[in-house]
Amino acid sequence: MNRPPTEFKRIAAADLRAFGTTCLRAAGMSAAHATQLADLLTNSDLRGVRSHGTRALYGYCCTIRDKKANPDPNIRILRESDTHVFVDGDGSLGYAPTMLATERAMAKAKEKGLAVGAACHIGHYGSAGHYVRRAMAENCVGFSVQAAYPQYYPSNDGKRAAHYGNPPLCFGLPGQEGPPVVLDVATCILADYQRGEQIEAIEELIPAAFFKSMGYTAIATLLGGAFVGQGGDRAREIAAQWPAARMGSLILVLDLDLFAPASQVRHGVDELVHLAGEQMIPLRGYDEVTLPGTPEHRNEEAYARDGVPIGAEDVERLAECGRDFGVAPPWLD
What residue numbers bound the domain in which 308 lies? Predict the structure, then answer.
């Protein structure tokens, strides 16, 4: 999914942001939330994370229009201390509540060394990397996760040995001169679309990998769901009213200077990235070794300069969104 498309149209990031904002406004989202969401989706496109970029715009617009998520939420802080903040998203998509929790946690981490933010009663919050990268931009280390309670399970006909959910999570540390190290993933060893007997045969070859992914899924589910209040009566009420809002989110922020000088930590990130590329052997089918975060860093620089390569199928999906919500894509002018 997140490999560069073979057939594509280059679209300026500014055009993607403007189009996304206008479509979300037409769907009923507030101006501030529409601008924020369109910006974050475009940022994913800039990094080459197509799965969480503007290809999701149409789905979000329909979710807001069809009132599956609250288009006009009363986002409020439930509890707060010097080192934590707890946000109620009131049935909204997860972006605005989790970013609010992130911003508040960052300020607290600057004062106390570390802080944690959480949001409950929210919908999808996209890439976990959005919130970790925001923390990194303020000289912090970040970790984020989102999940539901109870977690989604397959039907009886679709049971599998090693899959019971795939919550997103992200860890990130900024570099000094080079790219950051950002592990922005989901907990399963395989993607959601990788299913079937041939794939399941792999489980017998490397069971330890699947055992690990099951454990990651369990921890992520509990931290992003039960730990942040998704098992309560209010969560069930919100999910009944806003069916797309049955999740929670968590963001942990640590000041980069907490233990060692920030410049020393950043230099360590640079050294690790350099040594990995110099001393490791590429996997079969690949030309070089890169740590997570390097490909996205390269894409961001190139796509900001040359335009984002939007796959042909996704260009048509954006056009369909525009037709449905009465917004003309600016790249057709």
Answer: 1-66+293-333
